[in-house]
Design goal:
This protein has helices spanning 2-6, 26-31, 44-49, 59-88, and strands spanning 17-20, 34-38, 52-54. It has 89 residues and is of the alpha/beta class. It contains four helices and three strands, in the order H-E-H-E-H-E-H. It has a three-stranded parallel sheet with strand order 1-2-3.
Length: 89
Amino acid sequence: LVAGIQSSRACAQQTVAVTGDGTNDAPALIRADVGLAMGKSGTQVAQNASDIIIMDDNFASILDAVKWGRCVYDNIAKFLQFQLTVNLS
């Protein structure tokens, strides 16, 4: 499923995130662009295979992290645009 989404030509390149908590989820966590494992209920295998461990096992934490990440990315882009404009003037 992960490979199918990543290689899909229906639209632009997709970033694939996968959540998992068990040993059977490890291959998908490794193959995904971002693997998210559960910290409390997840197995050690899933945690080792993932990129991010959700410590409170709450999916709302993923949404908060994405919102913060987008905000930080936008602020960095605005800062770089400002600095380049000032330095080139």
